[in-house]
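Hi C.,

You asked whether I'd gotten around to modeling the 160-residue construct. I have! Everything is below, sequence then structure, no commentary in between.
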Amino acid sequence: MNNNEEILDSKIDDLYMVFVINNQKYALSSKYITEIIEILPITKVPFLPEYMKGIINLRSTIIPVMDARMRFGMEPIEYSERTCIIIIENEANKIGLIVDAVNEVLTIPPKQIMESTKEKNDLKESFVNGISQINNDIQLILDCDSLVNIVGDMSNEINE
C-alpha cells in the first residue's frame, strides 16, 4: 500500500454517521454502514426480543431489524417521515438499525474519542465504545460489532 492509500484509509476510518435517538446523538463508524433507507414493511418474527422488530426484504436479502430506541431502554415512539433504517454489517452478520433521524457525517479523529471504560465482558449490555465532542455536541460512539453480533447470538439461541 502506498502512502496516499494509507492516508485515504485513515481518513475513511475517521468518518462517522451521526444519528439521533431521543434527542441524543450517536455515531457509527462509516466502514460498517452499507446504506440508509426509509422504513419498509417489517415482518414480525415470533419469539424475538421486543426490541427486534422483525425482518425486512431489501432487494431479495432478508435483514433483521432492531429498534435502537427500544434496545437502549427507551420508550418506543411512532415512526415519522424522518425515521430511517441504517443497514450495518461486519464480516459475519447484517442488521437494520431503526433510528429517529440521521443527522450528518463527521470526521472524528481517534484523538478526539474518549474510550469507554466498559469491560469486554459487558459488550452485550453496553454498546458504547467511546464519547466524542465536536462543536460542543457530544456523540456516543457505538460499537458496531456488538450491535451486529446480536443477530448471531439470536440465531444460536433459536437453533439450540
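If it helps when you're writing up: The chain has three helices and eleven strands.

Thanks,
B.
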